[in-house]
Design goal:
By secondary structure, this protein is α+β, with helices and mostly antiparallel strands. It is 41% helix and 27% strand. The chain contains four helices and three strands, in the order H-E-E-H-H-H-E. The termini are far apart.
Length: 85
Amino acid sequence: MKNYLNEIKKKLKDNIDYESLEIVDNSHKHIKHKSFSKNKHYFKLKFKSSYLSSLSRVEAHQIIMKVLSQELKERIHALEISIEP
């Protein structure tokens, strides 16, 4: 899992300007949900980014979702995104 999180961080860093990023795996909180799959993950992304915070919330989320589009199709079920300046 650690390698996968590092891959996500690298992909985001290569495509988005941010000062820091913390990725929290919240998959364990969703085990009892009907749509739960052990092959899909529930992540919270905590960005500190002057760039992303200068955009509208919708624009910032669209950029993040575009960068992670392949991961969202294959291994990520849900993303919670928070952005601080």
